[in-house]
Amino acid sequence: MRQRLIIIGFLMLSLSAFAQINIWEGEAGRPKVKLTAFTAQQPRHVAVIVCPGGSYFWHDTETEGEGVAHWLQENGFTAFVLNYRTAYVPAFVTHFRYIFRGNRYPDPQDDLRQAIRYVKSHAKEYDIDPEKIGVMGFSAGGHLVMSSVELFEKDDWPAFVVPVYPVVTMTAPCVHKRSRRGLLGDSRVGNKELKDLLSLEKHVPTDCPPVFLVNCKDDPIVDYHNSVLLDSALTSQKIPHQYLLYETGGHGFGASEIKGTPECRQWKSEFLSWINKIL
Q1: Which of 225, 229, 224, 222 lies closest to 200, judged by CA?
Q2: Closest CA to 200 of 117, 138, 142
Q3: Which of 31, 47, 51, 180 has its CA 20 to 30 A from that of 23?
């Protein structure tokens, strides 16, 4: 009997640890967008919404989504992996968005805003402090999470922002062109107004929440000067933030214990120290 109860308890814990939510459920005309919850094992009462990268065309769900969520979960955070809308591979291959809208800005931003609202409104059932809900994103996902405090109303802001090797600019020479095309869409990739709006280094608010920024000089995908631009903007606005610029590590390491280098993998322990200080 005792063994049966243990098994039942384990199954219930497993189900609660990987609950999948449709953030737009009940909203007419909205697509199904999945948010996967990983409940904390030893709760800090802090939540982190995780946005994987993928150039706004796809998601690196394994390394920058679920892998990150498991690491956060093991360290007492309740993590939510957001499968926000992207352009997807057919749009990358065929350029059909010259003719049809497809997924493009502001779809990913709308999804993140809705995810923040969902987690805040369900904070009690997840044993979360609604004032301690942050966002963490990688590559294009880093652009997405930082855009939350530049484009959203303050009621929808996260408590802290963690962009890791993020795409930042849409206008400077160091722009990641694939992410720009993925977000803006083929027919709008030359739209100056949109490019200015979505260049994060240009719109950091004076009351921006704390930011933890990470990248590597040898990043072969997103020019490391993207993060340098953001660090300069945060410093100019006197925003509390920590910037870790590693010499080695490349791109796409997420929270992996294998990818990247021993140097860049230090970001995880540095983040845990930082979050303990600010919260």
Answers
A1: 229
A2: 142
A3: 180
Local confidence band at 29 (pLDDT 50, 70, 90 cut-offs) = confident
For residue 240, say if its preceding peptide bond is cis, omega within 30 degrees of 0: no
For residue 20, the cross-strand partners are 36
φ, ψ at 216 (rounded to 5°): -130, 145
Per-residue confidence (pLDDT) for residue 263, from 0 to 100: 98
Convert the pLDDT of each residue in 68-80 to its tens digit. Answer: 999 999 999 999 9
Answer whether 219's CB lies under 8 Å from 166's CB: no
Number of other residues whose CB lies within 10 A of the CB of residue 80: 28
Cα–Cα distance for residue pair 165/162, rounded to 1 Å: 10
42 pLDDT band, cuts 50/70/90, is confident
Handedness of CA 177, 244, 71, 145 (dihedral sign): negative
List the one residue out of 230, 141, 228, 136 whose CA is nearest residue 182: 141
